[in-house]
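hey all, quick one before standup. I had two proteins in the batch that finished overnight and I want to keep them in one place so we stop losing track of which output belongs to which input. First protein below, input sequence then structure tokens straight from the run.
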Amino acid sequence: MERQDEWIRVERTSAFKELVQKRKAFIIPATIFFLVFYFGLPFLTAFTTVLDANVIGAINLAYIYAFAQFVMTWVLMHIYVSRANRWDDLVDRARREAAEGDETSDTDGAGRSE
């Protein structure tokens, strides 16, 4: 039960709420972009002729789009890692806020309020 109480304290901190908001603000649009970009290739090749245009010799837009998916994945991963590194500060702040909240509830003898 102690671990659950600890989690509840962390969950109630302003830093944790900010962390959740910032993660959602990045992850939801990034996931939508990834899925649209990823499934765009099979959709465009199956149902349209847009990617049939030759660019350099026998290399057509479908090959370039397929290669761009690798690039997009790596770029998205680097963006995520750089953002996640900034989110680590919020994680540390949430831990400190939860620990401070725990100390104040121990000193006043009132316990935590619901």
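OK second protein, same deal, sequence then tokens:
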Amino acid sequence: MKSDEFFREVDEELQREKLAELAKRYGWIALAGAVGILLATAGWVGWQRWQEHRRTVEAERFAASEQRAAGGDAEAVMALLDFAREASPGFAALARLRAAALATDEETALSALDAVAADPGGDPLLKDAALLMAASRRIARDDPGELARRLEPLAVDGGPWRHVARQLQAAAQLRAGAREQAVATLRRITEDAEAPPSLRGRAAELLDALGAPPVRSTS
């Protein structure tokens, strides 16, 4: 007999003795409670293992969908969206964001992004990313002034997406004819030391084109 089988049999025998002792000392009510605890523990362990297996399977399915999506065709986009309908919230959001980035059809892309943004239990960072991606597609079709106002919560100081949000906000303001507001928004980008250099550079170029170059430091 293998050692692990021996220890398992000993463990099972000890459990039977414990249950028998409980039955003698406290009656069948205590015994039923002990059995319930054992069953609940077994169920919890089983649930955790099933969840781990499910996450592994989901990761593999998402990777397969991503590989198919490399071609960027409509079928690949649909594969990602089909996966998202059955996936857990995190994987579903990632699949929809990826599908929206690949989709050439505006309505398909916006529908996927709106689904991520509207998910009440979704990750806030992913929801905000979906809002920004949708805003970039809506600048040419929605009311630009209203769009700029909707972006303001994402453009606040300290916001994780503020740099991209301000760039989109300035574009919407320019489209709405709000030059002074756009200049102020672009200055917020150039004056933010944490903004990526590429974004600061583009903002400075736009300010130059608008005749309102950023203030150069003399120090």
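Flagging for whoever picks this up: Residues 25-47 have pLDDT under 50 and may be disordered. Residues 3-69 form the longest helix (67 residues).
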